[in-house]
Amino acid sequence: MDWDVFISHTWEDKEDIARPLAEALRQKGLRVWYDEFTLTLGDSLRRSIDHGLAQSRYGVVILSPNFFTKEWSQKELDGLAAREVSGEKVILPVWHNVT
Fold first, then answer.
1. What does DSSP assign to residue 97?
2. Which of 71, 76, 84, 88 is flagged as catalytic?
3. Which band of pLDDT confidence, cut at 50, 70 and 90, is reported for residue 61?
4. 46 versus 15: which is more confidently predicted?
5. Which member of 2, 17, 33, 43 has the greatest number of CB atoms within 10 A?
6. Known active-site residue 76
7. What is the C-alpha to C-alpha distance for residues 99 and 91, in angstroms, rounded to an integer?
8. Domains in the chain, ordered, with CATH?
9. What does the alpha-carbon distance between residue 52 and residue 25 come to, in Å, rounded to a whole number?
């Protein structure tokens, strides 16, 4: 595996939780797939995300009201859920601003 954790989030949740979480995990020595750390200009977005999903030990999914309205976030969750169907326990949900 290339990364310990993949962080799935929406851009609206980036400032409040996604970036601080990614930075904290990295400071603890984890290899974090996070868009700002991993994507570079010219990368194929879909291919990079698919690779990150497949090559991460766990997927942290930031579940927020914004998350449930975005198609892209749902696709990331679907990719992680497919791995769970095969018996891997990979999804680590983080509930954010959900009551």
1. S
2. 76
3. very high
4. 15
5. 33
6. yes
7. 20
8. 3-95 (3.40.50.10140)
9. 16
